Amino acid sequence: MALRPLSKVDQLLLGVDKALRAVVPHSNPSTRPLPVSSDEIPELTITEARHVAGLMRINHTGEVCAQGLYHGQAFAAKDNGVKQAMQQSAEEEVDHLVWCETRLDELGSHASVFTPLWYGMSFGLGAVAGASLMNLAWDSSQRQKLKSANIYKTISPNYQSTINAQKRYWHKWILKSCIIVSWH
Fold first, then answer.
1. Which domain holds residue 96?
2. Long-range contacts of range 15-19, CB-CB < 8 Å, 24 or more positions apart?
3. Could you tell me the maximum CA-CA distance found in the chain, to the nearest angstrom?
4. Is 63 in contact with 120 (CB distance < 8 Å)?
5. For residue 138, is it within any domain?
C-alpha cells in the first residue's frame, strides 16, 4: 500500500514532534548501545562528578544544537535531496543525544535549562543556511542553468563533506557561545 503525501498540517506536527524530542529529555529511544568499554561506572569525588556533569551538559547542548541546525536546514531547504540529507543526519545524531542524557542521569545531573533556547537559535541558523543554499543562484534562469548543467549531481555526493564541515564549525561556535550559560 502506497503512503499518501503528508499534508502541511501533518508536516507541521511532525516538525513540532522532532523539536520536542530534541529538547525534552528521555523522549527518544536509542538505536545503538552506549559506547562504553565496560558497564562499570568509575567512582568519582563530588568535585569530579560536578566537573564531568558540566562537561556532559555542554556536550548535550552541542547535540541539541546539531538537531536544531539539521531540522532548520531541512525545514528551509528547497531541494528534496538536501532536505532528506538533513533529516537523515538528524536521525543519525539522536543516539548521541540519548547517550548524553543517560550519562547526565548517571551523574545525578540534568541538561541545561536553556536547552529550548539553544535549539531555537540553532534551528534559526539552520533555516537561514537552508534558505540561502539555493539563493546562491538568485534568479530562475540561473537555477535552470544549474539544473541543466547537472550541478545537482555533482553537489549531492560532495554535500556530505560540506555538512560535516558545517557541523564541526557550528558545534565549535555554538559551544563557545553557550559554554558558560550551559554550565549551570
1. 48-182
2. 15/71, 15/75, 18/67, 18/71, 18/90, 19/71, 19/119, 19/123
3. 64
4. no
5. yes
- State the residue for C-alpha cell 502541511: 8
Q: Beta-carbon neighbour count of residue 34 at 10 Å?
A: 12
d(CA 172, CA 27): 26
pLDDT of 106-125, one tens digit each?
A: 889 999 999 999 999 999 99
Determine, yes or no, domain membership for 30.
no
Closest CA to 103 of 31, 62, 55: 55
CATH number at residue 108: 1.20.1260
Q: State the total domains in the chain.
A: 1
* Residues 21-37: tens digit of each pLDDT: 888 888 887 777 777 75
DSSP string, 55-98: HHHHHHHHHHHHHHHHHHHHHH--SHHHHHHHHHHHHHHHHHHH
Query: pTM of the full predicted structure?
Result: 0.68
